[in-house]
Amino acid sequence: MAYLRRAAFAALIVALYGSMPSKAAEPIGQAIRIKTEVSGATGPLVVRDPVHRDELIRTSRSGLGQFVFRDGSKLAVGAGSSVVIDKFVFDDSRSVQKLTVAAAKGTFRWISGNSKHSAYQILTPAGTIGVRGTVFDFYVGGDGTTAVVLLSGAAEFCGRGGCQQLTRRCDCVVARPNGDMTDTRRVDRSILRTLGNRQALPFLSGGQQLSPGWSGTGCGLSAAIQIRPDPPQPRIVPPTRLAPPIETPPKPDKPPKPDKPPKPDKPHKPDKPHKPDKPHKPDKPHKPDKPSKPDKPGKPDRHDKNWRDDRRW
Question: Start and end of every FecR protein domain (predicted)?
Fold first, then answer.
């Protein structure tokens, strides 16, 4: 039941130390890289800010923080994560007797330092990661599901369902708070579907880039998502003193256009000549009366007929 107490204790630490200032706490390390927004107990963190025991560290949805502790161990905190450095007991100036990290949610990379492997312990809602080597990534989902991927050395995960050993590079185990746990197997892209989050292991898939010396990418996940490099930062050019502008003489006004001469009046058309009256037609001459026909001579008497007959002879 020890792992249950540790998981509950991790949640309790997040609740208790999330709002407590840690100015009086002893510094145990410092931030060496901050991207976007990473906050501690007193507000946003910047590079070289110290981190303290019992300090809650949170990152924004696109944030990234890289921290180095006094014994040389390293912790990368990916986007949307919450973690508390629960215990930090010094052994000497270069090592610790105990260093316990309580991870509430998010994605992380752990790199062991100069202390004995048994000095390190990672608490998650699904169980405890025992460090037996150097480098591994782990992810804690919002429901407490935890995945561990070994990159170097060895590790052990113990939960309600027992313990699984990770001894080869890219060995992986997934566990849930209810005790369900997979057997150790080589990680592949299907783990992102199992976890229900394509951004679950961004340091392996290439979703987030770590500084040189924090290497350990691949294991077949680099092609799981499209790698998008950070956009180039705009170059800030110092303002230069500009020469006074050369005044150009104003253009002379255009001369006004002369008025157009008025159009002459059109000449008056003469009146058309009056047409003379047509001459009066003379009266037709009076036709003379037709002469009267002479009377027909009277027929001669019969004795005259005999005269005519005499003339024939």
Answer: 57-155
pLDDT band for 31, please (50, 70, 90 cuts).
very high
Over pLDDT 90: what percentage of the chain?
47
Contacts of 240 (CB under 8 A, 6+ apart): none
Per-domain residue ranges of the chain: 2-188
Instruction: Report whether 187 contacts 221 (CB < 8 A).
Output: yes
List residues bridging with 214 in a β-sheet.
none
pTM: 0.65
CATH tag, 2-188: 2.60.120.1440
Six-digit token string for 166: 């990770």
Q: How far apart are CA 10 and CA 5, in angstroms?
A: 9
- Output the six-digit token pair for 118: 């048994």
Evaluate if residue 33 carries a pLDDT over 80.
yes
d(CA 175, CA 144) in angstroms, rounded, equals 9
Strands 146-152 and 171-175: antiparallel
For 182, other C-beta atoms within 10 Å of its C-beta total 15
Length of the chain measured in residues:
313
